[in-house]
Amino acid sequence: MTVLATMTPTVLHLSGDIDISTTAGLRRRILAALDESVEVLVVDMGAVTFCDAAGLGMLLHTQRQAEARGMTLALTRLTPQMTRLLDITELGDRFPILTDS
């Protein structure tokens, strides 16, 4: 887990399905949030009901965009399904995961 205590994050709340039909709009939304963020963008995944390979690819793409800008894109409030997806694909280490504790 990455500690981001000294940074003031921008938080973006996602909800619903993250799939091939929603990724283009979500990518624009996340990149716009990156434009407004100073150092850290936290993507709240607590209300995400489904994420497929296209959604995961979109998250990876936007994470690389954040890195290219010298910023951090972190995830928080992962659902059990999202945690499992990151574990199965072995991509959990690509994202800082923030917890409430």
UniProtKB/TrEMBL annotation:
- What superkingdom does the record give? Bacteria
Q: Name one GO molecular function term.
A: anti-sigma factor antagonist activity
InterPro entries on file: Anti-sigma_ant, MlaB-like_STAS, STAS_dom, STAS_dom_sf
Which Gene3D superfamilies does this UniProt record tie to the protein?
Answer: STAS domain
Per UniProt, residues of the STAS domain are: 11-101
One Pfam entry for this protein is STAS_2
Query: What family is it from?
Result: Belongs to the anti-sigma-factor antagonist family.
This protein's name: Anti-sigma factor antagonist
> What is the originating organism of this protein?
Herbidospora solisilvae
